[in-house]
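Entry — protein

Goal — fold tokens:
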Amino acid sequence: MRAGGAAVAGALACVLLVAGCGSGSGSGSSGSAAELSVKSAYMPQPVSDSMAAGFLTVTNQGGTRDELTSVTSEVAGSVTVHETVGGAMREADALAVPAGGRLVLASGGNHLMFENLKRKPVEGEKVTVELHFAESGTVQVEMPVESATYTPKTGA
């Protein structure tokens, strides 16, 4: 009986060990994939017939960093990602979305530039935008067009 008890204890230890190995794969653990969501997306109604700007916040609740590598939209010939460094705007190859962090694209900072507009978006409509990430693939976003003077609420 003593050998049988040892076998049961050994089997139980293996079950607990295997169960413990699987428990770290949940959201937020350091080895989990990026988990992206997009909020607060908007485009101010463009004043130009050829260019517009776009703003949004990408949140990553996963444990792996990702990068926004490009953006496409049916409304523009091209959409470029710009970063603002020391008050100067420049095109960026990619913008990081840190693990457990956010990428904020806001007026006066990092932003999207819609160039060679195929049509001028008007307040009240939504523009479809595809965000392309290095690890997470493509995320489609409906970006509402707001007034040219729209100011979002803080804390987005």
